Amino acid sequence: MKILHTSLFASLSLLAACAGGNKSTDPNAGVYDDYYSEAPGDAGDSTASGDKEPEIAKTSESTSSTASSAAQIAKALNAKKPKVSGKKKKAAKKKRKKKKGKKFKVAFDGAVPSAAPKGSVVEIFGSGLDQKELMVAIGGKPQKILEASEDRVVIKVTGGKGKLQLGKTPAKGKEFKAVDKSDYDFSVISKALGKRTTVENGLVGNVYAIEGEVTELPQFEQGSEIGTVAVDNLDINKVKPFKSMLGGRNEWYGIHFRGSLNITEAGEYTFCVNSDEGAQLYLDGNVIIDNDGANETPNEVCETFDVDPGEYGLDLLKYQSTLGPMVLQLTWSKDGGEKTAIPAANLFPPEDVADMAR
Fold first, then answer.
1. Alpha carbons 188 and 198: distance in angstroms, whole number
2. What domain range is 234 assigned to?
3. 136 pLDDT exceeds 50?
4. How high is the pLDDT of residue 240?
5. Inside any domain, residue 37
């Protein structure tokens, strides 16, 4: 079944009446304000002193001659530093020894996602993560570090089985020992869900356990998350049963994908959600596609709107019942053009992604 109609949504513009915090203040720009980028600091008024040459303060007394001045400089350069003796020498030695034996400290606070295919990028949050000797492992297998700061490190999954581990790179022939690690086993899953190739774009989803059998989307309770997933976009169309474990489950779970959608050009957009089981799409908190229910086969529902440029909060909910195919596709077309999966370039993760980590 395919539903296609044109709808005027709040003054001929999709969600224009919603005062969404994510919507662009410049409707003609539609440029996403990447939350990982830092705004340039206040450099001060450069025009006040930018044209002035640097000044050197002059002394009240002039040197008697160039020769005597040069001699004084030479004498100062050749002067030896005073020796450190007694208690000062002992204290300095103790300080150097203490610094040399400083303990390697790192802490693991959480990661996004908690399950991903090989080649995907994962954000790990914690402290002490910018140390040159840092090693990130999955069950003892080293992972590739792409970037690091004091409280976040981005890795590329190379494989492994077990917990996410943080520790010091061991010396040759030595065994790796984790300083801190996750409470759960990181799942290296199949590629069916889709890779996450960049932290700057895409959507992040919380995974929830569903207790009992349902035939429609249940209420996902905040605080009951069992895992996280992250994708560049949503183009999942797996015919065979999806056996990968998400939050320790491969059936009876739900996913709440979050992020924002950036529209750069005004036009008539048709949005479609194709899902094997219940799914709903929200923009700025308003449901625009309702494809809920226990679908025996993949079902696509489409809606068409006039859309202004801007940034719209996006939520997509989906549940999976028994072991079977995994189908979830989020597509669009503009002004009657070709229908394609919404690209990663137009999708951005939520600003509180660190709070979603586990």
1. 17
2. 6-26+106-356
3. yes
4. 83
5. no
Burial of 302 (0-12, 13-18, 19+ CB in 10 A): buried
What are residue 344's phi and psi, to 5 degrees? -60, -30
CA-CA distance, 329 to 332, in Å (whole number)? 10
Tokens at residue 208, please?
């929830």
Interval 201-228: pLDDT, tens: 999 999 999 988 899 999 998 888 999 9
pLDDT at 212: 86
Closest CA to 120 of 267, 228, 5: 228
**CB neighbourhood size of 128 (10 A):** 16
**CA–CA separation, 16 vs 27, rounded Å?**
10
Cα 303 versus chain centre, distance: 30
User: Which is nearest to 26 in space by CA: 283, 262, 201, 203?
Assistant: 262
- The reported pTM is 0.73
Domain count, the chain: 1
Is residue 249 domain-resident? Answer: yes
Task: Flag whether 72 is in a domain.
Answer: no
CATH of the domain at 255: 2.60.120.260
Amino acid at 109: D
Whether residue 82 is contained in a domain is answered as no
Beta strands 253-263; 347-348: pairing state: antiparallel
- Alpha-carbon gap, residue 173 to 161, rounded angstroms: 22
The total of other beta-carbon atoms located within 10 Å of residue 231's CB is 26
